[in-house]
Amino acid sequence: DAGVTQSPTHLIKTRGQHVTLRCSPISGHKSVSWYQQVLGQGPQFIFQYYEKEERGRGNFPDRFSARQFPNYSSELNVNALLLGDSALYLCASSGLAGPGEQYFGPGTRLTVT
Amino acid sequence: ILNVEQSPQSLHVQEGDSTNFTCSFPSSNFYALHWYRWETAKSPEALFVMTLNGDEKKKGRISATLNTKEGYSYLYIKGSQPEDSATYLCAPCHQTGANNLFFGTGTRLTVIP
Hints:
The complex is a heterodimer of chains A (about 110) and B (about 110). Helices cover about 0% and strands about 50% of the residues of chain A. Chain A is mostly beta strands and about 110 residues long. Chain A has no helices and 11 strands. By secondary structure, chain B is an all-beta fold. Helices cover about 0% and strands about 50% of the residues of chain B. Chain B has strands at about 5, 10-15, 20-25, 30-40, 45-50, 55-60, 60-65, 70-75, 85-95, 105-110. In chain B, the strands form 2 sheets. In chain B, strands 1-3-8-7-6 form a 5-stranded antiparallel sheet, with no helix packed on it. In chain B, strands 2-10-9-4-5 form a 5-stranded mixed sheet, with no helix packed on it.
């Protein structure tokens, strides 16, 4: 069975550019959450979507946005990239809107230069 | 944003030793507590989701307890093996109907053969 997939694996962008990260959840999962992990820290919650609706938003600026498509895949968009946006971006899917095991993808490593 | 503390930050133990880690979190508005294991170059893997005060969960040699009144959870590993080497993350969820996890910085365990 396919797990959570994310693309691209690695990405290098320049300050001020825009980036789109993609996530496909496990088949049948309707919830997708996004996390940012900076070296030495635990993952920081960015967004949760369930059934295409935003269920939660972390403490991130409006430069960060996301959406979920009818097939439950999701995109995370970051505008006007800053050096501090360099991080591992993790996507996790779950079958539930509420607390339940989340299954993480391998992540996208974003480097902003 | 929740103040989640994990201790110790890192730990080295000999193969066969038993060990335990602590996760502290705000006890107010508690909904669930997740434990994850994150091995280098892999995705975080769910260990436990705990919701009730006094909950005890076990998976093989790993077990966890939960005290929601005082806001802490313990993770125990019995007879540590080199394959247990990983970062162990806890993440409480304080929002009903959502799956927003606020991770601690983790405990990095190294099991020496």
